[in-house]
Design goal:
It is a single chain. The chain has 257 residues and is of the alpha/beta class. The protein is 42% helix and 14% strand. The strands form three sheets. It has a five-stranded parallel β-sheet with strand order 5-4-3-10-9. Strands 6-7-8 form a three-stranded parallel β-sheet.
């Protein structure tokens, strides 16, 4: 079981809560995924007034742990303020930290991300930073106090799958003792299984589930794929070969002259 800031979790799927067709479908997706942690954007939900209150009540009824995020924040000041508001609302020190730097790709502002992480960890937050697959940035985040890293797989909502598999493999190898959660860009259960085979600890999804024709069924499919990918990693898969290798032994085979 992975450990995130001293909390052990059974499910390796973290589920986002945005853009579902209805609250009932969201609830069904969470249940069928068996996710224990869901992410919530404080900015979006609190803007809804009574609708926001109903949303929070729904989340409480699901008996899951909330990981608030700073989605939509484009500056250090904005992200830090949102994190502090989230701690008051949800009564948790956990925060998924996003500081967006590029409007089209929603790529993180890694300089602002490190600065915000340093401020928040200094104030007692347990930071889950949404970052790129850059090893130097990851080192700076760890130095800033982060004990979990969340590298992207591809741009948010792109459904591309692993845009740079070699970088993700290298990231895992470079940080063998840090919990790593792949965040953003996964579109299909096969994508999730693939990154789990690299040795990642968990996957965070939103758009791939919420935007599916049947979100609840897709949530369950992802949960199964993530478990399969992790099991495959632990079983140590064969590495690709550049030539054929017969599966039937040739020694002892009958020879006809």
């Amino acid at each position: 079981m992975p450990t995130l800031y001293d909390s052990k979790i059974r499910s390796r799927l973290l589920l986002g809560t945005a853009r579902y067709p209805s609250p009932a479908i969201l609830a069904d997706a969470v249940r069928r995924s068996k996710a224990e942690i869901v992410t919530v954007s404080l900015r979006r939900e609190t803007a809804g007034g009574k609708a926001g209150d109903a949303f929070f009540e729904l989340i409480r009824d699901l008996s899951v742990r909330v990981l608030p995020n700073t989605a939509g924040c484009h500056s250090v000041r904005e992200a830090v303020l949102t994190a502090k508001m989230a701690r008051e609302v949800f009564r948790t020190d956990w925060i998924k930290l996003e500081v967006i730097g590029h409007h089209d790709t929603l790529q993180p502002d890694v300089f602002g991300l490190v600065e915000a992480a340093r401020i928040l960890t200094g104030e007692g937050f347990q930071v889950f930073p949404y970052t790129t697959d850059d090893l130097v940035v990851a080192e700076r985040l760890i130095e800033a106090g982060c004990r979990v890293l969340m590298p992207w797989c591809a741009p948010i909502g792109s459904a591309m799958g692993a845009a740079n598999p070699m970088a993700l493999r290298s990231f895992r190898a470079h940080f063998p003792d840090i919990p790593l959660i792949v965040d953003a860009g996964i579109g299909r259960p096969s994508h999730a299984a693939g990154v789990m085979e690299f040795g990642y600890d968990a996957v965070l999804l939103n758009t791939a589930v919420a935007g599916a024709g049947d979100p609840a069924a897709m949530a369950e499919a992802f949960a199964l794929a993530i478990d399969a990918g992790r099991l495959a990693h632990e079983a140590v898969p064969l590495e690709p070969r550049d030539m054929a290798v017969p599966s039937t032994p040739v020694i002892g085979k009958a020879v006809f002259s």
